[in-house]
């Protein structure tokens, strides 16, 4: 049975009983996970290369499916930004295939010896990277996630259950078929990458309930309503990705030109990414010299500014900021600005209103920077650089499946190493415990 | 307000409204967590030493409370093994105080640079160990957990919410008061260690719901009913500690004397620990020479043996094993024994019936050992040593709060390093993202 026909058969069953279909997917994923976990790196990499080739070979099928998704989306009146995320063309599809091939080139994350020591009794301990098992990724509009997530899971020895948004369902189905063909070509089980073959939202509930213990971790990639549903329903571990309410704090010892460059980049390079800055905090000790130029630069770059009283005084175009603004992830050309009474007040503000994602300080004072990096409890804390470096690629991880804001297991960019667990190997010579 | 009076005030409120009391505990824990996270190592260690001293000074109070718990327990007809776990005396209490002092002597788990690298654009990245935040420990009879868990959480910069079993409630309350006194003596907030001041089981439900987002991880330490409740109700991450259905596989290339020593130690050194062996698998290729001596050794050491047909043939005292035996964690002087068709069959049996806790192979064949250690998907895999080394102390972790069988974050013994999260510190010189 080819991977395509297997998908179609499941799809026809899906209409009958989502629970039964999902249970079957879980069982298949668990079985495939074991085979993938034990597959050598060169075979996993061969599968990734075969996937990339299949994505290129099947371009016309994938683009035709995408055209149908787009037509339905326009008919349904989806926002232009949503349509843009959904749309594929030859160039975007080639980039997707290239990204899969690049994952093949990453160092093998499995089998890394993370620690090694010997005890006085001669027992030698090794902590070694292993796969997590079965990773379920729930995503929305972007069909490329099917390829990206599938590739990262395979590289890290995990089986993937992918649940695409209903608007990208056809595109994702064709991409998943190509991924599965690549697995089979390399002699690996196609079920290591399964796309949920139904648009029924009940499937999400089944995944969050763990599919009878087969799901090891859920990765939600989507908006607030998805995250809220995952948080309230999940019975399995989650790589939580909450808001990116990121701050830039301009300290009294900040170089103004550097602060301006970092601020404009952090806010405006791309406003829709989770590492985009949403609030600017300015130390009152440098407000006289730094506040107006920073606010003016933002306004002139086309960014709306909502500010406290001091910020409103700096420029008549500044509108009033309410408490809600300190908590808002705009993901838009809007920024909240506040003057704070120095480093401690800045840290307090970030701890109170921030989302523990990414926060930056601009300062030439190493001691202030050290305190900021130590005391701000965020996944990523940055001194003298843009918050938009919050990205697995910029970290050198090659690719990421998301940025985790929880404190468990993975925090920050989730790349292939973060998709690993570990085990202890203990080497003895007959030792028994007294 | 002293820590004792604070506890008493909460206790009197507890009768009124468990939900309100637990919410207050969560709020206090979160506030204390921040202070503890930023406290330098020498202050956290000073608190641990002060706690140990307070435990010694308050011995008579603690033992009096324990005597009341014991009297109630006997009246309620608790099993002798339960009473033994509950009972304290001068010696046990001194050992508890010593254990707390020893935690002070462990290396500081916070601030460790776990990784460090520089990107071509000059950005320097560090991954640094940080606390998890608020750790909730739900335990049953052993009052020493109050001290052990509190000490490990403090050492790792976390605030602890401790929920004692109702049978050890008075003992745990007095121990917690000593721990809180130690915190205050070192100038740290007593609320970094809070004991839930009510026996009401509704408190467990509140903790598992996360106390309004204040609980970062739950550590259940107890029997199957607690674990089952945690698995079905928890809305927050859990360091799952499931069964320790541990195996010893005696390979065809096993030295018989070594196999016997390891087997007897793994099964019988202590039968009630999670690292105790529950099933012996014997390679059919050495069954003729190894099976009968191993079975006889077990029987002569007072261990009941339940076996498959081949094992029953080896000794008339062997009773029949059913499928349920392969899945059972006896925690008693009983073992299940099966003859298997070599290494692959042994691995398949362990993967099918085991609990992914700790499994050992005895063999002189390095290749067979290598395959066993690679392919058995358990937290701890051991070559030529007893499964009873599954213990944080034996790993060199100093002390453990439990042994995790999940694959997320912590796997195997959970010591102070496993009670840590991490963050990324990024050091720039004005870099912006192109």
Topology:
2 copies of one chain form a homodimer.
Chain A: H1 3-14, H2 18-38, H3 41-57, H4 59-75, H5 80-86, H6 90-105, E1 113-118, E2 124-131, E3 134-139, H7 144-155, E4 159-163, H8 169-185, E5 193-195, H9 202-208, E6 217-221, H10 224-233, E7 246-250, H11 256-268, E8 277-283, H12 287-300, E9 304-307, H13 309-314, E10 319-320, H14 323-326, E11 334-340, H15 343-353, E12 358-362, H16 366-375, E13 380-385, H17 392-395, E14 403-404, E15 412-413, E16 420-431
Parallel strand pairs in A: 3-4, 3-6, 4-5, 7-8, 7-12, 8-11, 9-10, 9-11, 12-13
Antiparallel strand pairs in A: 1-2, 2-16, 14-15
Q: Runs of chain A with pLDDT <50, length 5+? A: 1-14
Number of strands of chain A: 16
Order of strands across the biggest sheet of chain A? 10-9-11-8-7-12-13
Assembly state (oligomeric)? homodimer
The average pLDDT value of chain A, as a whole number, equals: 93
Top CATH class of the largest domain in chain A? Alpha Beta
Shape descriptor of chain A reads globular
Q: What is the helical fraction of chain A, as a range of percent?
A: 40-55%
User: How many discrete domains of chain A?
Assistant: 2
Note the beta-strand portion of chain A.
15-25%
Helix count of chain A equals: 17
Largest interface: A-B, 64 and 64 residues
User: What is the CA-CA span between the terminal residues of chain A?
Assistant: 56 Å
Radius of gyration of chain A: 24 Å
- CATH fold field value of the largest domain in chain A: Aldehyde Dehydrogenase, Chain A, domain 1
């Amino acid at each position: 049975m080819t991977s395509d026909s297997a998908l179609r058969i499941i799809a026809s069953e899906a209409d009958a009983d989502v629970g039964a279909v999902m249970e079957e997917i879980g069982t298949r994923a668990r079985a495939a996970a074991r085979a993938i976990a034990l597959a050598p790196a060169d075979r996993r990499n061969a599968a990734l290369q075969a996937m990339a080739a299949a994505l290129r070979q099947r371009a016309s099928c994938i683009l035709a499916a995408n055209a149908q998704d787009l037509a339905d989306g326009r008919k349904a009146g989806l926002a232009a930004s949503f349509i843009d995320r959904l749309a594929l063309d030859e160039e975007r599809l080639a980039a997707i295939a290239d990204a899969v091939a690049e994952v093949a080139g990453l160092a093998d994350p499995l089998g890394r010896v993370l620690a090694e020591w010997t005890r006085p009794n001669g027992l030698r301990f090794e902590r070694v990277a292993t796969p997590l098992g079965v990773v379920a990724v729930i995503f929305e509009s972007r069909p490329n996630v099917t390829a990206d997530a599938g590739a990262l899971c395979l590289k890290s020895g995990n089986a993937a259950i992918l649940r695409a948004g209903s608007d990208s369902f056809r595109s994702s189905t064709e991409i998943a078929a190509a991924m599965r063909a690549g697995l089979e070509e390399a002699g690996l089980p196609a079920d290591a990458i399964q796309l949920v073959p139904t648009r029924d939202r009940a499937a999400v509930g089944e995944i969050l309930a763990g599919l009878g213990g087969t799901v090891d971790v859920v990765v939600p990639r989507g908006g607030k309503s998805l995250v809220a549903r995952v948080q309230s329903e999940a019975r399995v571990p989650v790589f939580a990705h909450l808001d990116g309410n990121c701050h830039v704090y301009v300290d009294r010892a900040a170089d103004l030109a550097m602060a301006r460059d970092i601020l404009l980049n952090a806010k405006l390079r791309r406003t829709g990414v989770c590492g985009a800055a949403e609030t600017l905090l300015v130390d009152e000790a440098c407000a006289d010299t730094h506040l107006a130029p920073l606010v003016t630069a933002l306004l002139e770059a086309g960014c709306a500014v909502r500010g406290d009283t001091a910020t409103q005084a700096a420029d008549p175009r500044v509108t009033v900021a309410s408490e809600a603004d300190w908590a808002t992830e705009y993901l838009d050309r809007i920024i909240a600005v506040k003057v704070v009474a120095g480093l401690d007040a800045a840290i307090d503000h970030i701890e109170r209103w921030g989302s523990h994602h990414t926060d930056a300080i601009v300062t030439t004072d190493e001691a202030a920077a050290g305190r900021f990096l130590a005391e701000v409890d965020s996944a990523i804390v940055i001194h003298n650089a843009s918050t938009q470096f919050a990205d697995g690629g910029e970290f050198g991880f090659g690719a990421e499946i998301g940025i985790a804001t929880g404190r468990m297991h993975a925090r920050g960019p989730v790349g292939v190493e973060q998709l690993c667990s570990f085990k202890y190997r203990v080497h003895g010579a007959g030792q028994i415990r007294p």
